[in-house]
Specification:
Blueprint (H helix, E strand, L loop, with lengths): L1 H14 L10 H24 L12 H11 L5 H32 L1 H15 L7 H8 L3 H25 L3 H9 L4 H35 L8 H10 L3 H29 L2
Helix pairs in contact: 3-11, 4-5, 4-7, 4-9, 4-10, 6-7, 7-9, 9-10, 9-11, 10-11
Length: 271
C-alpha cells in the first residue's frame, strides 16, 4: 500500500494542469508597444494611405494630429481645462463614494434590503447617465451642478455593487470574533468590515473612474466654458480638425494615466 501511495505521489505533479503562458517584464512592454504600433499603422493607413486626396479623413491624419498635440501641450490654458475636468471627476467620484459605500454595506449586510432594492437598482443602473442630461439641465441649470449629478449617478453603481459583494464575501468568523469580543457596531464596521471590503471597494472605484471619464466629455458640452469636452466643441466650431483629434488623443492619454493610478492603488492594497 505504501508503495502505491509513493507511486501516486510521484505522478501527481505531472497530472497538474500547466499554467497559462504569461508575459512579464520587458516582454510585456515590448508587446504593449507592438500593439500601439499596430493601432498607429491602421490609423495612418485609414487617413493617409487609403483615403482619397482632399477627403475629410486626411484632416485627422496622425502627422497633423500629433503636431497639433505637441502645440497644444505648450498652450498655457491647457492646464486650466485639464484641471477643470479632473476636479469634476474627483467630485463626482467623491459623491459616488458617499452614496455607494454606505448603500453597498447596507445592501450586502441585509438580505431583506437586497431583495427589496435589487430590481429597482438594476433598473436604474441600466439607464445611461447621458439620457438624464436634459432633465439635469432643467433641474440644476447650466454649469457644474448637472455635470456633478450625472457623474455621481454614473459612479454610484459600480461602487455600490462591488462594496455589497465585498460585504457578502466577508469571512463570518471575523464577525463572530468581533461579537465575542463585545465590539460595538461602529467598532465592527471600522475595524472588521471596512478593512475587509477595501479590495472590492477599490475595484469599484477603478471601474467608476473608467465610466466617469467616458461620461465626462459629453457632460462638459452642457454650456460650461472649461474642460476637455469644451475644448472639443471649440475645436469643432473653429474647424480645427487636427486640434480636435489632438484633444481626443489627450483625453485617451489622461484616461490611461488615471486607470494606471487606480491599478497602482489597488496593488498597494494587495488586491
Amino acid at each position: 500500500m505504501s508503495e502505491q501511495l509513493a507511486v501516486r505521489d510521484s505522478l501527481r505533479p505531472s497530472l497538474r494542469p500547466s499554467r497559462p503562458w504569461t508575459v512579464r517584464g520587458p516582454g510585456r512592454l515590448v508587446l504593449g508597444l507592438a500593439g500601439i504600433t499596430v493601432i498607429l499603422a491602421a490609423w495612418w493607413a485609414g487617413t493617409d494611405l487609403l483615403a482619397p486626396e482632399g477627403s475629410m479623413a486626411r484632416r485627422f491624419a496622425p502627422g497633423r494630429s500629433l503636431a497639433s498635440l505637441a502645440k497644444l501641450l505648450t498652450q498655457p490654458d491647457l492646464a486650466l481645462h485639464v484641471a477643470a475636468s479632473l476636479r469634476r471627476v474627483l467630485a463626482g467620484l467623491g459623491l459616488g463614494l458617499l452614496v455607494g459605500v454606505p448603500l453597498g454595506i447596507a445592501v450586502g449586510s441585509l438580505r431583506v434590503l437586497e431583495a427589496a432594492t435589487s430590481p429597482a437598482f438594476q433598473f436604474l443602473r441600466m439607464i445611461s447617465p447621458l439620457s438624464w442630461m436634459p432633465l439635469a439641465v432643467m433641474v440644476f441649470g447650466v454649469g457644474d451642478q448637472p455635470i456633478l449629478f450625472l457623474l455621481a449617478f454614473a459612479a454610484v453603481w459600480p461602487i455600490m455593487l462591488n462594496t455589497a459583494a465585498g460585504v457578502r464575501a466577508l469571512d463570518p468568523r471575523w464577525l463572530q470574533l468581533s461579537r465575542s469580543l463585545a465590539a460595538t457596531r461602529w467598532e465592527t464596521l471600522w475595524h472588521v468590515v471596512l478593512p475587509g471590503i477595501l479590495g472590492p471597494m477599490l475595484t469599484g472605484v477603478r471601474l467608476a473612474i473608467g465610466i466617469l471619464w467616458i461620461v465626462l466629455v459629453p457632460c462638459e458640452m452642457l454650456g460650461v466654458s472649461a474642460g476637455l469636452g469644451y475644448m472639443i466643441l471649440d475645436a469643432r466650431d473653429r474647424l480645427a480638425y487636427s486640434e480636435l483629434m489632438a484633444v481626443v488623443l489627450l483625453i485617451g492619454l489622461l484616461g490611461f494615466l488615471l486607470d494606471a493610478a487606480a491599478q497602482v492603488l489597488h496593488r498597494l492594497r494587495g488586491g
